[in-house]
Amino acid sequence: MTYETVRESDPAVADALEDERTRQNETLAMIASENHVSEAVMEAQSSELTNKYAEGYPGERYYGGCEYADEVEEIAIDRAKELWGADHVNVQPHSGSQANMGVYLAMLEPGDKILSLDLTHGGHLSHGHPANFAGQVYEVEQYEVDDETGYIDYEQLRETAAEFEPDIIVSGYSAYPREIEWETIQDAADAVDAYHLADIAHITGLVAAGVHSSPVGIADFVTGSTHKTIRAGRGGIIMCDEEYADDIDAAVFPGSQGGPLMHNVAGKAVGFGEALAPEFEQYAQQTVDNARALGDRLQEHGLDLVSDGTDNHLVLIDLRPSHPDTTGKDVEAALEEAGIVLNANTVPGETRSAFNPSGIRAGTPGLTTRGFDEAACEEIADLIYEIVDAPHDDSVIAEVSDRVDELTDEYPLYD
Ligand code: DSN
After folding, report:
1. Ligand 1 centroid to 174 CA: how many Å?
2. Model confidence over 211-237: pLDDT tens digits?
3. Ligand 1 pocket test target in 129, 202, 314 with most atoms within 8 Å of CB
4. Quick one: 260 and 341 in the same domain?
5. Centroid of ligand 1 to alpha carbon of 5 (angstroms)
6. Does residue 101 lie in a domain region?
7. Burial class (CB in 10 A: 0-12, 13-18, 19+), 298
8. pLDDT (tens digit per residue) in 340-363
9. Which of 188, 220, 273, 382 has a CA that sits 20 to 30 A from residue 237's CA?
């Protein structure tokens, strides 16, 4: 894909788009929620469907001219059903947060109760943080991970549920490196007659490929975003049993959204098609293998991993035990200067602030799409360690940056 036409009409935007492509090509994307979609997904996302209003659902639209929008949406839905095995799928949410909003709107009344994981322990804003609508419209109580083990404290979850009597329990996380026990959480929800929403935004691809267990068929609602491990471009998705289908669809449109972003629905359709190919299973398994290799090597350097390792696509490093005077932001900034892009993250028992926390989160979905294997991830762990150990040393940053240049040349991304 070139930006020649954009350049002719708008050089400033063309410059920024080309710079962003260069940035992605020349850096290592290790933000655990990011990935690199295929050129086919990007082409579909930039199609003429961006012009089309298609309020409603296939066969029941409020505007004419929707026959091809219908085709695309039906393909996306059918492929999603095949990938995740859900009875009903809504592919219109603009994002994972919008998907969660759709479920809350469908099933809760203002003032109803949400029980979810604390943000600083790996939860998400849309699970009920006070700065988010979910924390403002609903009453929220939170469960935590065990400070010692870093694993979800399922006993505390059960006890909190019994005391708080939530209307919905939210599982699925943004910074949790371990396999999630969906059935244990479902049991806790059943015990208090609450709904269970499993937000698999981060692990959509791992679940589709069977390298993480699936909450579909266990939880009442499964939401996700479509641009992370599933690599299908920006957007969200809701899955549920047929009994909730009408309520969910009505909560997405007209409840919380207007016209669907049909160009993004086309991207989802193409990306889901790619994920149905047998190679995708290898991709998902390699993503997990790479995260394990990265984590093991970081531990060999003496860095502390929350939960002592990983079962999925990310590792969460607690800097306090090994580098008590170094903050996540220090490391994030130094790594970015060297061409490794990840994010500072809170850790369980956080003693600093959410803005300048004590940890860093590193993921392998983007590296794996690029073709990196375990050996390359071990080397990246070495580079990360060098920077963690000397975040203000310009000569170390320059050395790491040179090696990142070699690695990005060796594993090319977009032409
Ligand atoms: N922003 C995403 C993440 O980084 O986890 C979640 O929405």
Report:
1. 6
2. 999 999 999 999 999 999 999 999 999
3. 202
4. no
5. 32
6. yes
7. buried
8. 999 999 999 999 998 899 999 999
9. 188
The answer to whether the CB of 126 is under 6 A from ligand 1 is no
Q: Are residues 174 and 238 in the same domain?
A: yes
Ligand 1 atom at minimal distance to the Cα of residue 225: 7
Report pLDDT for 373.
98
Query: For ligand 1, atom 3, which residue shows the shortest CA distance?
Result: 33
Among protein residues, the one with the nearest Cα to ligand 1's atom 5 is 174
Residue 221 domain-assigned (yes or no): yes
Supply the pLDDT for residue 332.
98
98 lines ligand 1 (CB under 6 A): no
Residue 39 one-letter amino acid: E
Q: Which atom of ligand 1 is nearest to the CA of 32?
A: 4
Residue pair 165/173 in contact by the 8 Å Cβ criterion: no
- C-beta 35 within 6 A of ligand 1: no
Is residue 227 included in any domain, yes or no? yes
**CA atoms of 328 and 81, how far apart (whole Å):** 39
Query: Are 270 and 122 in the same domain?
Result: yes
Closest by CA to 258, choosing from 45, 93, 88, 101, is 93
Count CA within 13 A, CB hemisphere, residue 354.
10
Q: Which sign does the torsion angle of CA 235, 241, 244, 245 carry?
A: positive
Give the mean pLDDT of the chain.
97
Question: Is the domain of 300 the same as that of 234?
Answer: no
Answer whether 0.70 is exceeded by the pTM: yes
Of 124, 230, 346, best ligand 1 pocket probe by most atoms within 8 Å of the beta carbon: 124
- Decide if 87 is inside a domain: yes
Q: What is the mean pLDDT of residues 126-149?
A: 96
Domain with 360 in it = 282-410
Length of the chain: 415
Total number of domains in the chain:
2
Ligand 1 centroid from CA 292, angstroms: 21
**pLDDT per position as a tens digit, 169-189:** 999 999 999 999 999 999 999
